[in-house]
Amino acid sequence: MQTVSESMIRKEYQIKVNECIENMQQAIENSFNNIDTKLDELLNNEFNSINIIASQQQQSQLPKINSNILFKFQDDNFPKQICQEVTSLMLINTHNQVQKQEQQYQELTKETHTTQKNQIKQNDCQINTQTIQQSSTLQTTQSNVKPFTYQLVKENSIKQDQWCNAIAVNKDCSILIAGCESQIKVFEVIQGILKQVQILNEHGRDVYTLNFMKRSDHFISGSQDKSIIIWARDQNNLWICQQYLNGHTNGIYCLQLNNDENIIISGGWDNKIKFWQKQNTWLCTQTIRDHKNAVLGLTLNEQLNRLISCGSDNFILVIDHIDFFNKWVVKQKIKVEQCGFRLCFIDNYTFTFYPDSRQYIIVFEMNNINNQYTKTKEIPVKGGTDHCLFASQYIESKCMLVNKNGLNVSLISMKQNGEVMNQESIEFGTSHIFGYMTDDGQYLITWDDKSKEIQIRQYHEK
Question: What pLDDT score does 248 carry?
Fold first, then answer.
């Protein structure tokens, strides 16, 4: 029996997808050219557009679109938004069709391609060997985890009366930046002491999030003024604004960078998650609108192909990257009883979530049967009234989760066998705590409204 190669299947479906998208975009654009100011005429044109799309879908066997989808769009750019919505549905459906075709292809070639089958087995063995080696390394690292504490380095405390919502440190711990209300203050380590060297005043309102790039001498900031700024150094070694990223319609609460540092992911009070890609300049390439209220937390997994988010709408979104289409698609929506401000991947299959004011952190793990995340355990912590910002972090080298909860910052060991141990809980006497743990786990930097200091604590084994 003659078979079709996998590359031909992919190429065929890619062509079909592109043709369908182009046809729908053209139909939508044509149908909206004649829209005038009257609401009745606008609605008539919208439903005509949906009929055109529905007709195309019947021909290409794509999922039907409910006409109620129109009422999701609140701004004036109807054609673009409908195209995005339809394309998202097409991506999911066509991705599933490609998977089915690939399965059929594997069945067809099962008996006639024994050589390829044996090669696949060899590759699988190599992958399994790598996995075992990685697991062994992780287990060795975790078995070597010793009791520890973080001691305050008083001589490096910095008096800071302005409200400080965000802190970040560069990769070699030589520069510290702090979002002090609308300003960004830059500190450098000079003869072992942190000294302020520059104040940046480009933002118009409070700075909520800061992230250093590790491959280049840049950092990014997100603010209540709705903007993201890319910062770089000039010829005088001073930090300057390189580019504004404007697209959010309300304050920005969280930012994530991928390891290649060519994608920025932002979440904000406008309920949106935006993906910014670096081309000649930074451009917004996709927007996720599935949250119905503010986006408060974002985190990427180790493989950088999965994003999870939490919002004040009591939902956690699991968003997967589909390489074939270079798109992010919502794979799972997890309803939680209480909204939370922070969540964190421990590995590709496990993440933690802290619900507001609770005395426990929830652990979610992937179910191997349906590939869905479910709650598996709770980690007891000291709770209390909480506030957003101060993202959770997992420090892999120390197998340690850093989580702000209520009046405390909890430092929790996460072991290979699933055992957890709350190594230390630092109490600040206030719930207004903001901070950052360096990537190597050596320093915990915080600001709180009780001490009104930027405080540095250093890792020490007991």
Answer: 96
CATH architecture of the domain with residue range 145-461: 7 Propeller (2.130)
Q: Quote the CA–CA distance of 54 and 23 in Å, as a whole number.
A: 12
Give residue for tokens 């055992």: 419
Domain spans in the chain, listed from the N-terminal domain onward: 6-108, 145-461
**Nearest alpha carbon to residue 82 among 39, 26, 35:** 26
Measured between alpha carbons, how far apart are the two ends of the chain, in Å? 69
Query: Residues 134-173: pLDDT tens digits?
Result: 433 334 344 455 788 999 998 889 999 999 999 999 998 9
Cα separation, 249 vs 262, whole angstroms: 23
Global pTM value:
0.70
Task: Please tell me the distance from the alpha carbon of residue 269 to that of residue 419, in angstroms, as a whole number.
Answer: 36
Return the minimum-mean-pLDDT range out of 14-23, 24-33, 119-128: 119-128
Binned at pLDDT 50, 70 and 90, residue 55 comes out as very low
Residue 54 sits at φ, ψ, to 5 deg, of -60, -40
- List of residues 6+ apart from 200 with CB closer than 8 A: 183, 184, 185, 186, 231, 239, 241
32's tokens? 């909206």
Between 97-106, 323-332, 415-424, the lowest mean confidence (pLDDT) is in 97-106
How far are the Cα atoms of 99, 177, 214, 266, 412 from residue 419, in angstroms, in the given order?
37, 35, 32, 33, 10
b/e 40-74 (16+ beta carbons within 10 angstroms → b): eeeeebbeebbebbeebbeeeebeebeeebbeebe
